[in-house]
Structures are given as C-alpha cells and as structure tokens.
Amino acid sequence: MGSTRLPGKVSLPLDGTPVLTHVCRRAQSVPAVDKTVVATSFHSRDDLVATLAERAGCSVFRGSDDDVLGRLSGAARAAGADVVLRVTADNPFVGIPLMSAVVETMGDSDAEYVSTKLDRSFPLGVDAEAFAANSLHQLASQTTDPRVREHVTPHFLEDPGRSVRSLTARDVFPDSGFPAGPELRMTLDVPLDYEVYREVYDSIDYDDVLPAGDAARYILQHGLDSVNGNVSQETSY
Amino acid sequence: MTVVAVIQARMGSSRLPGKVHLPLDGRPVLEHDIRRARAAEVVDDVVVATTFHRRDDLIARTAESLGSRVYRGSEDDVLGRMWSAADEAEATTVVRLTGDNPFVPPQLISEVADLVENSSYDYASNKVSRTWPIGADAEAFTFESFSRVEEAAREPHHREHVTPYYQERDEEFEVTNVTVTDVYGDRSFDAGTELRLTLDETDDYLLFRRVYDEVEYDDIIDIHDVVEYIDRHDLGSVNETVEQRTKW
Q1: What is the pTM of this model?
Q2: CB A45 to CB B12 under 8 A?
Q3: pLDDT tens-digit readout, B42-73
Q4: Which among B7, B3, B55, B5 has a CA at the least distance from the CA of B29?
C-alpha cells in the first residue's frame, strides 16, 4: 500500500474489482500454478491487502516492507515451493501465457531463473519471471546489496554465474507474436496509468481475466499510450 | 453570501493508504463525499482541499472529473490549506468536511451552515457535545472568524486539526452545537456515540462496503437506514475495537 506516487494503488478498482484481485485471478488461472500467495508487509496499512487476498482465495504471507527478497523467500518457504513465479501486484495485465511459459520452462530445464525481462520484447508490466526456490533462499541468506533486497531481479539479470533462460515474444507466441513491445507502458505507478487502465477495463468484454494482448491492442488503437507514455519509470525490474 | 464546503482529503494514511479512492457500491469514497456536500441545499460550491504532493494527483483528477473545485496546499498545515481553499472560493461561510466520512447527512451539513450563515454564530457543529455516530460530522464557521483563527492559532494541533481553536476559546467565539434531535426532530435516533462511521482501517471499510452493497438508496443513503441496518445485523461491534486517534 505504501507507494510514493499512488498510495493504495493495489486496492483501486478496475471494472469494480480491486487491482490486487485481478492480479490474483491472473496468477490462479495459470494451469501450472499450484498455490498463489500474496506476500505483503506486517504493517497495519497492509491489512486491507491481506483481506482482499484471502477473499480472492490466496494464501497470505506477511513480512518485511523493505526487504522484498526476504519476504519473497519467506513466502516461498511457507508454501513449500520448488519454483517461485514472481508477480507484482501493480501489474493488472501480467501475461498469462507468459507466466505459463516461464513456469514450464523452469520445470523442463535446470535454469535458476527464467524470464521475459532478460531480452525485453513485451510491454512493461506484462513480463513474467520464475525462480528456483533454492536459488532464492540462498540469495536471501547471503546478499546485502540493498538494490537486490528491494528489487530481487537485478541479481539474476546481472550475475553471470547464474544459470538463466530468456524467453521472448517469439518463444511465447511463435505464430502470432505480441501486439506491442517494451515501448508500451502497462504497469500501474501514477494516476495517468490508472486512468488508461480504467478505460481499458471498462471497455473490453472479458470473462474472469482480460487478455494482455487485447488490452495492448485497445490502448494502441485508441491512442491511449499518449496519455501515460511520458511517465518516467523509476525502476524496470 | 457564499457557502463553500471544503473537503480535506489526501492519499497518505498510516492505516489505510488511498482510502478515499476505495469503492463503495462502485464509486470512490470521495465521490460519495462530494455528492453529500452538494445535496445540502445551502451549499453553493464544493472544494476538495488536498496536498501539492504528486501522490495526491489522483485526488485532484477525481475531484475535477466530478466537477468539483480543487485546491492544493500543505500536507501538515491543514488549517492553512483549508483557509486558502475557502479564500480562493470567496466563501463567506465555510463547511469543513473530511474525505474519510462517507455517511455525513446532508441535513446536518445544511443545519450547521444555516446556523452560521443566517444567525450570529461564528461556529456550529455536532462536535461540541456529541450525540452523533463518529464520522457523521460537519462543522461550519464564518470566513471572518476563520481568518482570525488562521492568524492566531499557532499550536501544532491547531494547524493539523483545524478547528480545536474555536472550542478552546469559546469566550472569543459564538459557538453552538447541533444534536441529532435538532436536525431530525421526531425522526431522531439514538445510535450512541460509539458507532464508527469514519473510515480509518480495514474493518471500517469492510463494514461500509457491506452497508453500501446491502442498503437500498437513491443517490444518498439515509443515515436512519444505515443505523437500522447495522443494528439489525448486530454489526456495530465489527469495527468497535478500532482506536480513534483523535477526537477532532
């Protein structure tokens, strides 16, 4: 809930449903996912996050606010995970086929990290990434780099000692591709983002989950990318 | 003569960040606040007074999209922010409302505003001697007296909570109180003064969401129906352990 630019953003409604609930449904709709856990902080300002998560049928893990790596590792331990699919709650268009692909690739390989963020080919906010739980636990017990404790991903993007696998739009959608690339913003950080996504969610018919490709096409066809296109992204992990 | 309702609202909340944008029956809390202020017949204009911080951009955009005026000022000096908002709107009477109270009866707003606008009182509210649920609150004061308060009040709690100065200096100001009976006469109700109709924590939100989903209404939920629903379903206790931090 503590966001500097849009406090409480994960409880904002899109089509009448909180952003967090949309994100839970998206993760739950991935066939390879056995269990969905919402990892939030122990602070009272995150009580609503915990309540919304439970109502969406997710487990809840509460940990540190600033040590995201420790919280992610703790949540994975509590759930007994082998593979951790990491999703951030400010991405109401996180791609379901992408999530499926990274989890399946983890299962088929000995990679520690499989991600669409290594070679960016999708809009910001659609990407998916998965970690081997053991690698995450080991990193959590050792690293003191504040950037890794807060964002986790930079370590796997930058450490050449890690066994990683990159997936691109061509891997995930070999036939159709994806309608937009990394120049399109589909993550929720500021009020202008919220206005765009609210229009998208109000305008497109969908059942249960709204396909990211439909949303991207709608944004481009209606020129909505000009509304929030100039928002500066503080991090891109 | 211009009666201006000033709604103070911000996204930062230690216990429920972004609370004024949480949906109740599909509309953000702030929209309910603005509708209620407008529904009070004596109110000529509504201003949402928020901060200049970028985290409050969404409040400004929501208020504008609903046709409300917006004033952006200091986060800490709420008194100064409200005074400037009232000054810019050329208020002669100011009604102070807070964004976290989605059940304020328009009739109460009218009553306090009318006492200040059309008689000699400097300040009228339901808070001098409480008979209303917590959060069914409205205060009105003359812009003239508010200007004196703005200049004289220097304690931090005056700047943060805006109106304690009136009640502490009741020899300087003509102050009056409005009870439930004053507003509703023989339709008066007694819900006690412990019932919480203010939005501070998750338990409050869950209760209010249920009320807004279940109680039938047309534009504005009647407080009689709210009190009756909570009483009938024995829901008054679900958020009673929430500790009220201030009594202003």
Answers
A1: 0.88
A2: no
A3: 999 999 999 999 999 999 999 999 999 999 99
A4: B7
Residues 215 to 234 of A: which have CB under 8 A from any B CB?
A: none
- Give per-residue pLDDT as tens, A98-110: 999 999 999 989 9
Q: Do B11 and A45 touch (CB under 8 A)?
A: no
> A168 CB near a chain B CB, below 8 Å?
no
**B15 φ/ψ sector (left φ>0, alpha ψ -120 to 50, else beta):** alpha
**Closest C-alpha among B9, B230, B39, B227 to residue B101:** B9
ipTM of the complex: 0.78
Q: Is residue B67 part of a domain?
A: yes
Confidence of residue B14 (pLDDT cuts 50, 70, 90): confident
Distant-in-sequence, close-in-space partners of A202: CB < 8 Å, separation ≥ 6: A15
- pLDDT surpassing 90 at residue A122: yes
Tell me, what CATH number does A191's domain have?
3.90.550.10
A4 found inside a domain: no
Domain count for chain B, please give it.
Answer: 1
In this complex, do A48 and B16 lie within 8 Å of one another by their Cβ atoms?
A: yes
Interface of A with B in 40-59 (CB under 8 A): 44-45, 47-48, 51
Q: Is B61 on the interface with A (CB under 8 A)?
A: yes
Split into its structural domains, chain A has a count of 1
Distance from CA of A227 to the nearest CA of B (A): 13
